Amino acid sequence: MCRNIKTLYNFDPPASDEEIQAAALQFVxxxxxxxxxxxxxxxxxxxxIEEVAEAARKLLGSLVTNAEPRNREVEIERxxxxxxxxxxxxxx
Length: 92
Description:
This protein has helices at residues 17-32, 39-62, 72-87. The two termini are 31 Å apart. Helices cover 61% and strands 0% of the residues.
């Protein structure tokens, strides 16, 4: 799994188009091995991003859950705490 791709489902407010596009970009970069494609691959690279983003939109719009929506601020704080435990807090 790409570490930079964040969970986008079941948040209030729902994931924005920008968040979906960013996740699609990271996914295509991981699959292709390119951070930036060559001119020869640029068109198919960007097409893949659009297709992945569209599939993600369909998926996010079709999933169902009985769970309460997650709070973005709470999730950000949890990630900060996990990162501090994993990498240290930088005050050493």
